[in-house]
Amino acid sequence: VIVVVSALGGITDKLINTSQMAANGDSAYEKEYREIVNRHIEMVYTVIPAGNERTVLLDKVNELLSELKDIFQGIYLIKDLSSKTSATIVSYGERLSSIIVASLIKGAVWYDSRNFIKTEKKHAKHILDSELTTRLVKETFQKLPEVALVPGFISTDSGEVTNLGRGGSDYTASVIAAALNADSLEIWTDVDGFMTADPRVISTAYTINELSYVEAMELCNFGAKVVYPPTIYPVCHKNIPILIKNTFNPQGEGTIIKQEVNSGSKAIKGISSINDTSLITVTGLGMVGVIGVNFRIFKALAQNGISVFMVSQASSENSTSIGVRNQDAALACEVLNEEFSKEIEMGEISPVVAEMNLATIAIVGENMKHTPGIAGKLFGTLGRNGISVIACAQGASETNISFVVESKSLRKSLNVIHDSFFLSEYQVLNLFICGTGTVGGSLIEQIRCQQQKLMQERGLKLKVVGIADGHHALFTRAGVDLSHYKEELAEKGMPSSTQVLHDEIIGMNIFNSVFVDCTASAEVASLYKDFLMNNISVVAA
């Protein structure tokens, strides 16, 4: 087995921050450096029993840490931090963690990945030199020990230390696995595998047991940060399965990624999203029928290192919309306005502007190819909940439908889609109940008694997400426990007013929501119009 290790959690960020503090002449960098030292020394004392082995390891660790100290001091004195120095500093994270783990695993042999993971410079980035790396990996591991230990992430380019980018340890493992035709590639991380959606946003998301390479790649590219996307490519060609497991829950099944998967009954496998999206639209009647406009758009962006993750073009050809990250939006507009300056001057093309604060959502699954009406169900569900789709794109491979919505609708969109595609055995209704007197109190009691029955017999899940009386109001996405709602309202509720009701209910922007008015108040009734405008249904007693 070959074990590839990354730096200790959080150390890479700490190394980057410390070096920037030193370059800015901030003497507090020494405190940060001491924290890095303590973290590694403490780790050695925790995992290696007292004795000769610990002494030898501490000598090695201290030697590396003192080299690091000298580099930080040099940066602090000359107040300059080159990308070459920065790459060298970051490499210490993996160099330190890997010698500790090599000492921890009995009989493990440590290999220096800088000798066989090689990069070359392209567009100011270090890209893997695949041919040279594959040859060197084969030579290095001709004779395999029981356990070979390799630091991930770090590499070299003509003798200079470089790295493979964030998530580069996964990539290192994948490159070695492909070069040696391994039986499988296991990635141990801090989640149970790929989930149907982001569990921080959707509490009902669950682990996907099997994914094809294509599905995994589609989900990775769109915000599912389980695997660094380039990891999939090298092993996919050799049909080497990837197993994703959770270090903190080794009993969990995890997710297996392979060529052929059992398609199952669900039309889509997962939903993922990117919150920081800007949409840039190049539009103008001067584009219609003109050959090469898109070539110029993408050439200008590529030359400036701007990555485009979504493209949407109408067949009339008079506009092309492209999705980029927010941080790239200003530069993208600048280079496109420069590229088309003549056409803009003549009025053939409008000046290029970016629409900011958007989110991109993708639904992914190979089963979508064979299921008619997926797009109809998707956009119908969004429409019923008042979510406007700004742009959309679907490839001919039909494994991904991507669309752009306003950032503020992201949570609601994800919940709506997850509810309609994954939890379709029952329909969820989110209720806001105003008034807990005779009528309201009776309604709440009826719902409490019938919640289970409605789910089992009617497939309807009634979830009360807000309750208000004349004094207090309580709102919770998880739902209020109706057997103790009076106590909860008194203890945890906020002071109630029509303004609070208006702002909280609209602000929650929750899907399939219904406002139930059990009061006789004209003030409460005056809220109906705004609720209806925001796609919240209203029931009046």
Notes on the protein architecture:
The chain has 541 residues and is α/β, with parallel strands linked by helices. The strands form six sheets. Strands 13-14-12-15-17-16 form a six-stranded antiparallel β-sheet. Strands 21-20-19-18-22-23 form a six-stranded mixed β-sheet, sandwiched between helices. Strand 18, helix 14 (438-458) and strand 19 form a beta-alpha-beta unit. The chain starts with a strand and ends with a strand. The mean pLDDT is 89.
Secondary-structure blueprint:
Blueprint: E1 2-5, H1 11-23, H2 29-47, H3 52-78, H4 83-104, E2 108-110, E3 119-122, E4 125-128, H5 130-140, E5 147-151, E6 154-157, E7 160-163, H6 168-179, E8 185-189, E9 210-212, H7 213-221, H8 232-237, E10 242-246, E11 255-258, E12 270-283, H9 293-303, E13 310-313, E14 319-325, H10 326-339, H11 341-345, E15 353-364, H12 374-384, E16 391-394, E17 400-406, H13 410-421, E18 427-434, H14 438-458, E19 460-468, E20 472-475, H15 485-492, E21 494-495, H16 498-508, E22 513-517, H17 522-525, H18 528-533, E23 537-540
Parallel strand pairs: 1-5, 2-5, 8-10, 9-11, 18-19, 18-22, 22-23
Antiparallel strand pairs: 3-4, 6-7, 10-11, 12-14, 12-15, 13-14, 15-17, 16-17, 19-20, 20-21
Helix pairs in contact: 1-2, 1-3, 1-4, 2-3, 2-4, 3-4, 5-6, 9-10
